[in-house]
Amino acid sequence: MLMRESGCLGQECWSREVLAGWYVPRTELGYPRCRTSSYTLYLPSSLITICMLFNLVLQSILFLPPQGVSQKAHKKLRFVPGIVYIDEGGAVGQCKEIRQKTTSELCEMFRSTGFPFYILPLEQVLDLPGSVVVAPSSLSDQPTSAYKAAVDLFLQSGGGTDVITQEQEGVSLPDVQDSQTQLLQQLMDSAKTLTAKQDLLSTLRQHLLVHTARTKGYSKLMLGDSCTRLAVKLLTSISLGRGAQLAEDTGFSDCRYGDVVAVRPMREYSAKEIAYYNRMFKVPSVVIPSLDTKTPDKASIQRLTESFVTKLQADFPSTVSTIYRTGEKLQTACRSSSAEDTDRCLLCMCSLDTVVEEASALQATLISEQLSQTKAPLITGQNSVEPEPSAAVGRCCSAEGPCEGTQVAAGCCSSPKEHEAAELRSLLCYSCQRTVRDMVSGRAAAVTRMKLRSQREKIIKNSSTTLISKLGF
Amino acid sequence: MAAPVAVHLEFGQIFFWWGGVCNVNLCVWFAGDMKQLLVWIQQNLLKERPELFVQGDTVRPGILVLINDADWELMGQLDYQLEDRDNIVFISTLHGG
């Protein structure tokens, strides 16, 4: 029996509720609905990647789909799942032997599910092409008739079992070069704080997941965020300056990547329910350490927020659900009518929140930061201190060249290195700027890579613009 | 004082990884309630970092305790008197241990 905020449930009733709840996201995923834009129409036989992270949620998520895709299931799930696991041992500092042992155990577990699976070392993120930071346009809405036709086709084809059988054969554990691991460790070590490290790790992982889903032909990416995790993430994101990206970071569907949509089907379940489910249904598990394993409560903002929420939940059981329900109401305000027109952050791929007017909260924050760091105040003829308008991020130096102002104001770039840093900042959202700011050594390598990607992006954009003009549009 | 009873303790693998608990599964003879059991565990089983498991009188928030596969909140939590052949399971729901 399990005690919940709404009362206690017996095992049978609770397990029925869990399995029924699993099908709610199915309706959200599958059917054309006249609801908010967070629900995306998709066609059956779409490949969906289940992202395997090191938490309890994903252990259970692996075992729910077999019950759903089984032909005997009362309500069948009409998609073909694949599993991807990102081995982050290189970033955490694990030795090769332990990584091999863990991936072997996971390999056996994945094989038993019968789904195709991919085990990738995080080191592969260092070799991703520049196109990973370019969000292709999303699939256009399909009419209802196309959906019904696709359902019939999917059922006739036997539910995609051919794909499953083919992909499971010949899966081998990836080989990781020591030089790549060292590079990755250098990149992680360049972040001074654990907060920045965790943020960076999360971003790198996400890029690799999206790239894998894209290259393997998967249209959806299932993430294992539970209700509790999302409540913590919501408060953490606010603390990290990601208020503008809350809807995408915590919503059911995340469309920032364009062709690959990230979904969170487990967001209705609390961590306690998931743990109980795993126990009741004897779901096998493999313990994998993360960056903040065995760290004190105040080691990072993420850790501190988790500690705060879980402690509050113990005394006030409605804490997590209240935070979660509040987060459900969040939506992203669109600045332009076309998604392609909005500039996106190079790291997190969300719309830039730094392009704002003068009298904005961001401007006030930046001016306060600048003034608090300024050693000598800038004094004008009237003996008053005027904050430089160049405090705006990325506006002091344009992309075309360095600052040409005669006055060297605090925060204004006065050297090629600072110009490079300002250029990089203009490509990042506020939160990612703070993460990159925390990176000391290895920053040059990170900057160079980002610069190359942004240059490639500009070339792609310029090429398409030239083509469009030549066609006479 | 009540006679000792056989109690089966089970810890999720994460506890072993923390380095806090020597055995994942063990059977002990114990007389008392859950509060006294937690004190006993802290003194005898936790090798290091007891604060990752115990906070004050009770377990750290985020750790799920099951008594015979039932939530311990339904059984009286710390006041539950242990009975013969009880199965106590500790599961961590915390991210990163």
Automatic annotation (TrEMBL), chain A:
Subcellular location: Cytoplasm
Cross-referenced InterPro entries: CTU2 (IPR019407), Rossmann-like_a/b/a_fold (IPR014729)
GO molecular function terms attached to this record: nucleotidyltransferase activity; sulfurtransferase activity; tRNA binding
UniProt-listed GO biological process terms: protein urmylation; tRNA wobble position uridine thiolation
Membrane spanning stretches: 41-64
Keywords carried by this UniProt record: Cytoplasm, Membrane, Transmembrane, Transmembrane helix, tRNA processing
Source taxon at top rank: Eukaryota
A UniProt-annotated Pfam family: CTU2
Pathway: tRNA modification; 5-methoxycarbonylmethyl-2-thiouridine-tRNA biosynthesis
GO cellular component: cytosol
Role of this protein: Plays a central role in 2-thiolation of mcm(5)S(2)U at tRNA wobble positions of tRNA(Lys), tRNA(Glu) and tRNA(Gln). May act by forming a heterodimer with CTU1/ATPBD3 that ligates sulfur from thiocarboxylated URM1 onto the uridine of tRNAs at wobble position.
Family stated for the protein in its record: Belongs to the CTU2/NCS2 family.
Name recorded for this polypeptide: Cytoplasmic tRNA 2-thiolation protein 2
Organism field: Fundulus heteroclitus
Gene expressing this chain: CTU2
TrEMBL record, chain B:
GO biological process: protein urmylation; tRNA thio-modification; tRNA wobble uridine modification
Transmembrane segments: 14-32
Covalent cross-link Glycyl lysine isopeptide (Gly-Lys) (interchain with K-? in acceptor proteins), where: 97
Pathway(s) annotated for this protein in UniProt: tRNA modification; 5-methoxycarbonylmethyl-2-thiouridine-tRNA biosynthesis
Pfam entry (one): Urm1
1-thioglycine PTM sites in chain numbering: 97
Superkingdom: Eukaryota
Description of post-translational modifications: C-terminal thiocarboxylation occurs in 2 steps, it is first acyl-adenylated (-COAMP) via the hesA/moeB/thiF part of MOCS3, then thiocarboxylated (-COSH) via the rhodanese domain of MOCS3.
Keyword Protein biosynthesis: no
Assigned GO CC terms: cytosol
InterPro entries linked to this entry: Beta-grasp_dom_sf, Mopterin_synth/thiamin_S_b, Urm1
Keywords of this entry: Cytoplasm, Isopeptide bond, Membrane, Transmembrane, Transmembrane helix, tRNA processing, Ubl conjugation pathway
Location of the protein in the cell: Cytoplasm
Location, primary (coarse class): cytoplasm
Stated family: Belongs to the URM1 family.
Protein task: Acts as a sulfur carrier required for 2-thiolation of mcm(5)S(2)U at tRNA wobble positions of cytosolic tRNA(Lys), tRNA(Glu) and tRNA(Gln). Serves as sulfur donor in tRNA 2-thiolation reaction by being thiocarboxylated (-COSH) at its C-terminus by MOCS3. The sulfur is then transferred to tRNA to form 2-thiolation of mcm(5)S(2)U. Also acts as a ubiquitin-like protein (UBL) that is covalently conjugated via an isopeptide bond to lysine residues of target proteins.
Protein known as: Ubiquitin-related modifier 1
Source organism (scientific name): Fundulus heteroclitus
Gene designation per UniProt: URM1
